[in-house]
Every structure is written in structure tokens, then in C-alpha cells.
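Following up on my earlier thread - several people asked me to post the actual chain instead of describing it. Fair enough. Here it is, all 297 residues.
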Amino acid sequence: MGDDFPVQRCVNLDQALEAPREGDWGYTIARGDIAWIAAQGFDTVRLPVRFHAYWDDGLDPAILARVDEVIGWAMEDGLQVILDLHHFEPLMDDPSTYGPTFQAIWTVLSDHYAGYDDALIFELLNEPSKELDTAGAVTLFEAVWPDIRADHPDRWIVIEGGWWSHHNQLPDLPLFDARTALSFHYYGPWEFTHQQATWLDNPPPPASWGSRADWNTLRRDFADAAGRDAPLFLGEFGVTEQTAPDERAEWIGAVRETAETHGIGWCHWGFAGGFKLFDPATQDWVPGMSPALLGQP
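Reply from S.P.:
Thanks for posting it. Predicted structure:
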């Protein structure tokens, strides 16, 4: 068993730096957004970044400067930051070709963030999938671990397994050291959480959740995840806004409470994107989301 993972209440800064270029998907991270997140009682933001899109025998200094800016805002407001290598789809399709790029990106990031406050957390790779299974992902993690640890002996490092970070992959992830956290994502049942998703070619039709069988499945899934004796982290969970608001809030609240029952910190997907909790038009919570996530009006 490792140390206690310090993240309890987190939100993903989605649809921004994970896009091909920030703003392409309709959201750009603003200073006031970070302040709002801190004021609500969250302790962490997860920052997904499409780093490979800025790679050409090195990382574009502009993306490092922008990431530094967002990290700086968060730390000014007392938030931890999970820096996440996100949407590396070429690696998922062809691990042998793009594995060296993965290693090179982390060599640069490790060097760049040497000496940063330990409130910065590294997440090595979001949702291994397709041709990159858990064993292949672990091989990549093993390749970069010694160099990262040389620069960051006490920094938390988050890893996750294949099948898009499914909880059933947790038993196959190694606990490299006491500052390793094992992450999983939860979007079950997918037909409910992704109903009417506008970005899918064939989105699921409207669906309901909340039966006794639904609750039993949720509890069983989290009990299975919690069976892994390691620091655990629920890195993503969320529901489309096209879902009936009361059922959306019920599912989110149920997942959050179940994670907390098992002592698992969580990170909602997301802030102002397609699963948003924050409405940029009103500069406030989407109705129902504050009670679901924080248990308050």
C-alpha cells in the first residue's frame, strides 16, 4: 500500500488544451474559471493536454508557456494540478512507432518541471486503448519511470490501464513506489452516460438510470475497484447534458458518493465542455450539479 493520494475533489479542465488547438472546441481556460473552481471547494484541477500535437523534435515552447500559466493560476489559488498527457491517438494506433515520442515528451516535461512544487502531479497517459493494452502501457511507463523519478523523487505519478482506463484493469497495474496512484474512469452504463452525445456518429437514444439493478452494478464495480490495495483515483466520470437533469444529477451524485464511501478521490469530467458543471453564460453552476458533486445547494 502506498501513501494517501492527496486528491479528493477535482474537476477536469476539458475541451481546452486537449483540443487540436486551444479554443477549437469552444472553450479557452480563463483566470476567473480557476478562481471559481477554488472558491467552490475543489482541491485539484486535472489539465488534459494534447502534447503530441506540439511535438516536432521537441515541444513547442508556446505550449509549455501556456501550461505553465494555467498551473501558476491554479497554484496561486491553492489548487493541485494533475498534468495529463491526453488524446495521443497515434500512440494508441501504433505503439511501436510512437512509443519513442511518448518517452521523449516525458523527458522534456520531467526536465521542465524539475523543482516545481509537489502540488503538481503527473499523469503519464490518458486511456490506453486500441492497440495499446495494459501490458503495453506498463512497458511505456517502466521506460520513463527512472528518469522522471530522478528529477521528481517525491512527486505523485498517476497511471491507468487499458480499455479506456477500465476499472477491471487495475489488478494488472504495478505499484511502482509509494507515490504511485492507480486511476480508472467510470462511464457506466455507456448507453446512459453518452446518450444523445452530439459528437458521436450514432449516439445512444435517451435512456434512464436508477433501478435497483443499476445501483447494484455501480456498487459492485466500485467494490471491485477498491479491492486493489493501492492509492486509487477516479480520474473521470460524467453524463451528457442531453440527459434528463434529475437523472443526470442522480447518477453523478451516486458515483461520487460511492467513490467517497471507498475512500477514492474523484475528478468530474468536466468543467465547461460537453459534460459541463459550469455554465459560461451564467458564470455559475449548471443546475443540479452542486448538490450532486458537493452535496450542497
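The longest strand covers residues 180-186. That should answer part of your original question.
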